[in-house]
Amino acid sequence: MKSSYQSKIVSAQEAVRHIPNDSLVVVGHAAAVPQLCSQAIADNYRQYSNVRIYHMLCLGNAPYTAPEMRGHITHVTNFVGGNTRQAVAEGRAEFFPAFFYDVPRYFRNGLLPVDVAVIQVSEPNEEGYCSYGLSCDYTKPAAECAKLVIAEMNKQMPFVGGDNFIHVDKIDYVVEADYPLHEIPLPKIGEVERAIGSNVASLIPDGATLQLGIGAIPDAVLGFLGDKKDLGIHTEMFSDGVLQLVKSGVITNRSKQVHKGKLTATFLMGTKALYDFVDHNPDVDLAPVDWVNNPTTVMQLDHIISINSCIEVDLMGQVASETIGLTQFSGTGGQVDYVRGAAMAEHGVSIMAMPSTAKKGTASRIVSLLATGSAVTTSRCDVDYVVTEYGVAHLRGKSLRERAMALIAIAHPDFRPGLQEEFARRFPSA
Ligand code: COA
Fold it and tell me: Which of 2, 40, 54, 365 has the least CB density, counted as fewest CB within 10 Å?
């Protein structure tokens, strides 16, 4: 098989020399970031002029966001992480708001015309197909639109099935690699997360299909689902938390209307245990984000339960999930894709689950007004359930007065008096 791409093998340094000036380069992300080429691009930054690099979730050291890249390389993204936040805040990198499911369309319709895709793939199978491994999401659509495809072929990238393959013939340059993938540690689950998990679990019936965000709250929810039956997974991403429920037979994916019997996601991120589990596993399907996250796909799943988190919710039910005031903290991601898909599904439910406070208990996340400059991620017409460690507030269909009452009831007790004063001002006759 190697003979079919032998002539395409180059070093990372050689591969990135083919990136032209004034171009848009789409780089794979999360656990599948092509580490050798990313570093080579940054090392060679002086050779570039006006190269824009789109990638989404940045694990690792985001080398091309360093201050000296200015004028040579600009990072553009619709999701900010810990290692790109500073660059965005200082105007050295650019953030654009977008629904995750919509990004591949930007590649195709010219809003983000892809010149070069720099991706990571598995070694090919007998027929010459490499798997995109842990990240199909926007990576496969970008490679299909790009004029030039540079692929790091990592021996350690799992071979994951679904609509998740590229043939070696479609790759222009192959960079051979053998390095461990980025892992994210298992989250720490405390008392608050456990209480939230228990409250969320009370909304999940047998036979439900789950979309889970990342972090301690989704994992805490999974910890309370041991007694449920025939749950399914259709989600932007999943992590190690689902493995136990698959092994114990709680997650069977039997009740799903789409991809019955399969764990469906658009990318995966977790520990080596997860990566080993998904490797050559016929029960795991990855597909591009414009299909997986598309609300018109999500709506086909009866009993889809979407579980996401947020920064603040105001008394009308407006949800700020990606900004802290004017600071862009993360991004819209797939939150609204699933909130809207769930709203259109038979028996679909969407849940915003968050601790009642932030900043070590000094700030309420349920607020009378969102912090100045906040972006509303999920609108008050889209919001459905809000859950904290103090309970469940069901907002859909409720009046502004009823919403405010329901939200105050699940705020931290220390902040309820202040919120009640605001309630009395807004609804004087109540
Ligand atoms: N005021 C001030 N600071 C706040 C705050 C508030 N209301 N709410 C949170 N923060 C701070 C926290 O204190 C914490 O700071 P620290 O890192 O210094 O401790 C930080 O913001 C992160 O908060 P936390 O609740 O720990 O974040 P998280 O890792 O659980 O992520 C979101 C929560 C909302 C940022 C994340 O879920 C997100 O980006 N959501 C939008 C996209 C999405 O939903 N994607 C999934 C779709 S499939």
Answer: 2
* Contacts of range 41-48, beta carbons closer than 8 Å, 24 or more positions apart: 41/16, 41/73, 41/118, 42/66, 42/69, 42/73, 43/13, 44/13, 44/16, 44/17, 45/69, 45/72, 45/73, 46/72, 47/17, 48/19, 48/21, 48/72, 48/73
Annotated active-site residue 236? The verdict is: yes
| Helix ranges restricted to H, 93-211 | 103-109, 139-145, 191-201
Q: Is the pTM of this model over 0.90?
A: yes
**Nearest-angstrom CA–CA distance, 134 and 265:** 10
Which segments of 160-240 does DSSP mark as H helices, in order?
191-201, 216-222
What are 430's two structure tokens? 């109540």
Distance from Cα 324 to the centre of ligand 1, integer Å = 9
Q: What is the pLDDT of residue 335?
A: 97
**pLDDT greater than 70 at residue 305:** yes
The residues lining ligand 1, judged by C-beta closer than 6 Å to any ligand atom, are: 213, 215, 236, 308-312, 321-322, 324, 329-330, 333-335, 358-359, 363, 365
Q: Is 429 exposed, middle or buried (0-12, 13-18, 19+ CB in 10 A)?
A: exposed
Q: How far apart are CA 30 and CA 193, in angstroms?
A: 24
Ligand 1 atom with least separation from CA of 312: 7
Q: Which of 152, 193, 236, 389 is catalytic?
A: 236
- What would the DSSP string read from start to end of 64-108? GGSGGGTTTEEEEES---TTTHHHHHTTSEEE----GGGHHHHHH
Centroid of ligand 1 to alpha carbon of 322 (angstroms): 7
At 250, the amino acid letter reads V
